[in-house]
Specification:
- The protein has helices at about 5-10, 20-30, 35-45, 50-60, 80-85, 85-100, 140-150, and strands at about 70-75, 110-115, 130, 135.
- The chain has about 150 residues and is of the alpha+beta class.
- Helix 1 runs antiparallel to helix 2, helix 2 packs antiparallel against helix 3 (about 35-45) and helix 3 crosses helix 4 (about 50-60).
- A 4-stranded mixed sheet has the order 2-1-3-4, with helices on one face.
- The longest helix has 13 residues, at about 140-150.
- It is elongated.
- The structure holds FE2/S2 (inorganic) cluster.
- FE2/S2 (inorganic) cluster binds near residues 77, 79, 120 and 122.
Length: about 150
């Protein structure tokens, strides 16, 4: 176990209630935004849970990945409000600008494009989330602007 992972575990109480938060924290330590088998074992052992329960949680929630992803995860909401407000034109713009399909990562390892269900920001549909930040009222132009901003910030 790395020193960094040990430090993360110690921030959490040994309670099954913190499983999702702990998995998030472990996933964030990896620059490629995914959980390794070792991470799942660490979480299970630390919280005293069966490994199968940790695996079930990881496969149930789409925000977790067992495969390496980009440094930034773009998740476009495909639930009804966003769908009706034009989410598909947002997805098309992202696919065109990034040169990838949904579920893929750009060759430079910077972005992974995913779909998600409602992000709770239906009032500003269509919506996408980049890492932990929510962007609403999206248009293709606004999508290009956001990507430029992220690329510029390194
Ligand atoms: S339907 Fe897209 S944020 Fe709720």
């Amino acid at each position: 176990m790395t020193v960094e992972k040990k430090a993360i575990l110690q921030k959490f109480p040994r309670s099954p209630d913190v499983l999702l938060s702990l998995l998030h924290a472990l996933q964030r330590t990896n620059p490629q935004n995914y959980l390794t088998q070792e991470d799942l074992k660490l979480a299970a052992e630390y919280l005293g849970l069966p490994l199968s329960r940790v695996r079930d949680a990881v496969s149930f929630y789409t925000m977790f990945s067992l495969k390496p992803r980009g440094r930034h995860i773009i998740r476009v909401c495909e639930s009804p409000n966003c769908h009706l407000a034009g989410a598909w034109s947002v997805v098309e713009e992202l696919k065109k600008t990034l040169g990838i399909e949904v579920g893929q990562t750009t060759p430079d390892g910077l972005f992974t494009l995913e779909l998600t269900s409602c992000l709770g920001a239906c009032g500003v549909a269509p919506v996408m989330m980049v890492d932990d930040e929510v962007f609403g009222n999206l248009t293709p132009e606004r999508v290009r602007e956001i990507l430029r901003g992220i690329r510029g910030a390194g």
